[in-house]
Every structure is written in structure tokens, then in C-alpha cells.
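Hi F.,

I've been meaning to write this up properly since the lab meeting, where we talked about keeping a consistent format for the predictions we share between groups. The idea is simple: the sequence comes first, exactly as it goes in, then the C-alpha cells exactly as they come out, then a line or two of notes. No screenshots and no reformatting. I'm using this chain as the first example so we have something concrete to point to.
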Amino acid sequence: MPVLNNSQSIALQLEKVRPKVPVLFERDDVLLSLIQKRSDAEKTSSRNMRVPLQVRPGGKASQHTMDGDDLGLGSGSVYDVAQLSPVFETFGVQITKLVEYATTGNERAVENATKREVASGMKQFRCYLDTLLQTNGNGVLGSIASFATTTWTLTSPQGSALFYYNQDVQVYDATLTTNRGAATITSVDPLNKQITVNANPGGLTAGDVLVPSGLSGAQPVSLFGVKYHHVDSTVGTWMGLTRATYPEALKTPHFAAGNAALVPANVRLAVNKLRKVLGVDVLSREKLIAYMAPEQEHAWEQLGVTISEIVRNQVPADSGMPDLLFNQNVERRMAGVPIKTSIHADTTRIDFLALKRWGRAVMKEIDYYEVGGQTVFPVYGASGGLASAYLFYFTTGFQVFMDGPRYGAFIDGLAVPAGY
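Output, unedited:
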């Protein structure tokens, strides 16, 4: 008789499947979570929400002898109103019935795929909303530096960090007037700042920009992000107000680094400019955070490493080696302000955010799309009959506002440390 070998006993052997499913991509929602937790949420209708502002002081000061002289006339403050209305964002998830049948119960699968997709879909939707909060309100998530066939290299500062696999995007020209068409992302390489798409839209040109699916028309409007509210300019508008009308009130204090590496003086200048326009105690009153990408967190920590090295060289040799890096579990600070780091933040700037001055005009919180209590919808086949699949959607309708652009400061034009 032939010997029993392994190939003849395969049918008896059990298959081992590790009961853990790791996530191999990022889905940060740092800024979205901060704004939700630490700012106002105002319920709104489809009419514009109005944000009243005291933009200029009133009263006329003068000196007198009080010996019968004319005290003159007075004046009052100048008030105006900023306006905004919610925009709606949707995230659809589609699953076949076979997936549901095949992954229900511990005897069939290590996880129930349907339940996992509900949780995963919500996290990915929040990540997408967080990417929009990095923009200047027009939905531009990236710009094409060059392309080779269907592989696009995107420009700094964020490169491809604001995109994810299978995301649908619209391609516009650099002026946001010509919509060249749509593309679907088939892979994302954030370290090399590249994405691959299913097909190039007609007329694709270096310098074209990418916006989310669904935006249309010239100069589209999306969520108002950090770069919409933190602007040091008198050009354009802010929530319906012309910046040139109130140049002293609608500009955000800032320091331009000129593509130089971060140094403590940059931070001191930005913070002191904020103090000069809102008072010396603004840091204690407003409880700012320093919002930045890992690149600028690296630059700031490197300054600390240098200082630590200087200190180490001045202590006795037998005193032990200090830790030249930093405990990530300990709150890190910049000019006394807590640091909050996000993968999605602009790699060349640092924004000091006064989060209690930020808010959301909300028509619909993030939740399921519902019709008559139904949240799961059938898919129809080519015949007109039902397909063996179903859909559900997460939707939200909101817009992000501030009490005023002066409540914050930023540093831009910072050099990115080597290696990124």
C-alpha cells in the first residue's frame, strides 16, 4: 500500500482563520470631532442662518477742560451680519445578499460583514467630511502636478492625503469654471502623493483640480474649512461679507514663513499678532489649539530634540541618557497651546484655532437616510425586478461658521522636513 502522505490527508485538516480584521488605511476625523465636541450646533432651516457681528467700535473720545467747552457729538458701534446655509453630503454603501448570508453567524465567518460595513461606513464618511474641513470652501481636495497615463501625481501641501480608494471625484480646470468630467480612484499612495484612476477625463491638464462627486457649475461651494475662515486678505468674501469693507475685522492674524523651517520666533510672532488684535489675555480667554500635520509636529519636536541634546552635553557623563524623543501620551504644547495633529492638515502651515468660536449650522446631523422609517433600500436589476443587493446611506446637512476670522492665527509657507 502507498504511504499516507500530506496531500492525501488535506481533506481532514482544519483551516485556521485569524479572528481579527485589521484596517490598512487611515480614516482620521480629528478636526470634525473637535468642532463637534467643542463648538455650537445651531439648528437651521433652508433659509440662511444669520451671524450678527460687532465689527467696529463706537463712541468718540476727546479731552476737555470742562469749563463750558463743547463736548462734541458721539457715535455708535458698527454691526453687520454674516450669513450661511447648510450643504448636504451623502455616503452610500451597497451590499449583496450573498455577503449577508455567507457572513451571518460565528460558524460561517469571523465577522458579520453587514454589521462591520455599518460601523466602517460611518467612520469613512466622517473621515471624508474631515477632509473637506481642510479646504477653503470650494471643495478642492487636490491639484494635479503631473500625470502618466492614469497615475496622477498631486501637488503639495497635502498631495493625495485627502483621497481614498474608490472615491468618485470631479476634475475642474484651475479656475474652477470648466468641469472636465468624473473619475474613480483605484489606488492611493499618500507617501508618494499619487493616485491612480480608472480613466482620464478629456482635456486633462497639469494644474487641474479635484473636487468631490456631485459638485457642479462654476465656482462650486462646499463645507467652509480652515482655509476659508483663516485668511489674511482683503480680497473676496467671508460668509456674505466683503472682506474689503471691513479690512481690519475680517483678516486673520498670520505670519508668512517664506518656505523656511519652523523656528520658535514664527510661533511667537503669530501668537503675538493675535494678542495685538484681541488683547494680551486672549490665550487664556480663548483656549486655543495648535492644529498641524505630522510634518510640522516633527519640526517642532526636532527643535526640542536639539535643546535636549544641548542640555545633555552640559550634564555629567554618569547622569544617564535622556529620552531625546517625546512621549506621545503626554499632551504636547506650542507656546502654551495644546497641539492637535491630523493626517489631513496642510503640511506647510500651523493654525491656532479658537474652537469655542467655531460652530455648525445644522439641518440634519450625521445619520441614516430615512424614508418612512426605512433605512435600507432595494437595488433593481436590468430587468426591472429586484437585484440580490441592497443600499443604505449616511447623510448630513450642515455648514461650519466662526464668530469672526480674527479669532485665530496661522503660520503658512513653512518648509516640510526632509524625508516626507
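Notes:
Residues 173 and 208 are 5 Å apart (CA to CA).
The domain at 138-220 is CATH 2.40.30 (Elongation Factor Tu (Ef-tu); domain 3).

If this format works for you, I'll send the rest the same way.

G.
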